[in-house]
């Protein structure tokens, strides 16, 4: 892992950004895109000692944790509290797909 000078967090070591983008390209999501958001943020508690950049998908009040082969669902408030989420950036499905194409990667974009 490498330090991110902009917010003193570590770079992700998993596939969270790719997994979130893959998830929103599923036919079910694309049928109801307004119900979903790709979310980037910092998590202080996941499987590490320091905050890291992370990505997940939100469907209303439900968080889909998809990294490293997981497919778990949490209530958003519980997830944010448990993982001490900060620095949140939410993207609509169309914004996330456009930014992926523009930047040539799954994120983070900001």
Write up what this structure looks like.
By secondary structure, the chain is α+β, with helices and mostly antiparallel strands. 30% of the residues lie in helices and 33% in strands. The chain has helices at 16-24, 27-31, 76-83, 93-103, and strands spanning 3-4, 9-10, 36-43, 52-59, 62-65, 72-75, 85-92. The longest helix has 11 residues, at 93-103. The two termini are 19 Å apart.
Report helical residue fraction. 25-40%
β-sheet strand percentage: 25-35%
Secondary structure class reads alpha+beta
Q: What is the overall pLDDT average?
A: 86
What pattern of helices and strands is seen along the backbone?
EEHHEEEEHEH
Order of the strands making up the biggest sheet: 6-5-4-3-7
Let me know the number of strands: 7
Number of helices: 4
Between the first and last Cα atoms, what is the distance in angstroms?
19 Å
Major sheet details? 5 strands, antiparallel
- Radius of gyration based on Cα positions: 13 Å
* Low-pLDDT residue spans: 1-12
- General form: globular
List the helices and strands and how they pair.
Elements: E1 3-4, E2 9-10, H1 16-24, H2 27-31, E3 36-43, E4 52-59, E5 62-65, E6 72-75, H3 76-83, E7 85-92, H4 93-103
Antiparallel strand pairs: 1-2, 3-4, 3-7, 4-5, 5-6
Short description:
With about 110 residues, this protein is α+β, with helices and mostly antiparallel strands. It is built from 4 helices and 7 strands; from the N terminus they run ββααββββαβα. Helix content is about 30%, strand content about 35%.
